[in-house]
Amino acid sequence: MVPHIVDRTCGIEQLDPLREKACAGLHGQVVEIGFGSGSSIGHYPSGVTEIVTVEPSDVAWRLSASRRSDSSVPVSRVGLDGARLPLADASVDTGLVTFSLCTIPDVAGALAELRRVLRPGGTIGFAEHGLSPDASVARWQHRLDGLQQRLFGGCHLTRDIPRLIESAGFTLDALEQSYLPGPALSRPWGYLSAGRAVAPE
């Protein structure tokens, strides 16, 4: 059920501007971690020539079939685990991760792998939900985190996405953060970060 829920919740139009920000500047061969049902395909810029994906769910991969068939560039599935990419060192131009860093069990390992396979100075785009800087919201995120993980396939509410990216050795080049529009009760799930980070030269 989780891939179907993610397809509906993470494929909503309100998230399209964040996907646009995350995909801006992608070019050449792109590795996308946590491809899901392919909601980002329509936001890839014209400079992209190939998309290689990592997606652990066969159900999500099947859900992406129509989007993949409509893609103007080839899309292939090369692995199941973001922390173990079957790609050579410094072999891809750019990377993308959207609404996946919250769920990947070894998130530090996945970011380290992204850094390893990117060419020196390569960039990653990201759009994620995570830990709010507002103390009252963060308290609820910590209270709800265990239940969230049990109900939604290991999804965390309390991961500080920009800090995780920087801890992996990337430099934040662009970052926008805001709450998804909606009632205050939705804020534990709706603090969003989107931007770009650069791998070391």
UniProtKB/TrEMBL annotation:
InterPro entries linked to this entry: Methyltransf_11, SAM-dependent_MTases_sf, Thiol_S-MT
GO BP of this protein: methylation
Any GO molecular function: S-adenosylmethionine-dependent methyltransferase activity
Span of domain Methyltransferase type: 31-124
Alphabetic keyword roster: Methyltransferase, Transferase
Glycoprotein as UniProt keyword: no
Protein name: SAM-dependent methyltransferase
Organism: Nocardioides panzhihuensis
